[in-house]
Write a structure and sequence with these properties.
The complex is a heterodimer of chains A (about 70) and B (about 150).
Chain A: E1 2-6, E2 15-17, H1 22-29, H2 36-41, E3 43-46, E4 49-50, E5 63-67
Chain B: E1 2-6, H1 11-22, E2 29-36, E3 45-50, H2 52-68, E4 72-83, E5 87-95, H3 98-115, E6 118-124, E7 127-130
Parallel strand pairs in B: 1-4
Antiparallel strand pairs in B: 2-5, 3-4, 3-6, 4-5, 6-7
Classes of the chains: A alpha+beta (about 70), B alpha+beta (about 150).
Chain lengths: ~70, ~150
Amino acid sequence: MVKVEFLGPIQKESLNLKISNLQELATILQKTPEMTEWLANSAIAVNDTLVSSLDFALKDGDKVSMLPPVCGG
Amino acid sequence: MLELYDGGLDIPSILKKWYCQESTQNYGAFIPFVGTIRDEDGIDGLSFDIYEPILEKWFQGWQDKAKEKNAIIKMAHSRGDVLVHQSSYIAAIFSPKRRVALEFIDLFVEDFKASAPIWKYDLKNKKRIYALERSTRIKGSGLLGVST
């Protein structure tokens, strides 16, 4: 299973999904209308490293994090 | 050195501690930046969420860049609520010469605003309101929003 966590202001419980790449995660999350804005504006990290390709392969035990727009300081 | 604190920062004691830690290390320049919460738009203060694993990696990347210039970076940030006129952020550069420190403090703070995984909320009437309009999309955002 892959754990998917939603950080900061995204008010959504973590998910545990049987998926093998980010493309599959995109397909699942795009079915949830309230996620549309977050999907369009969030960065994605796998195991705490930012990634830039939907083809990124996922394996059992991986953690995917969704990071919405930031503003420290 | 990355330090996270619950609530507002004790600026005098943190700056004093950092100064004392490095004062005999032959750094000719010490340039701190302190971020203080202004009284504006009717807020009582700000509140912060931090995702520490990625913040630590991001910070280490900058520390490595500084090391190439024989400089070091120190940073402190607040978690949770910080009231108006308190401070939530300090960044400081120590370097042998002033030019490196002046350039690094600018680059570091700008990248901090654009990349550090910290989320800001306005505190108004005991509510925590995400400051979306003042926030910046991290580079590469929108990956999962692409229609297939």
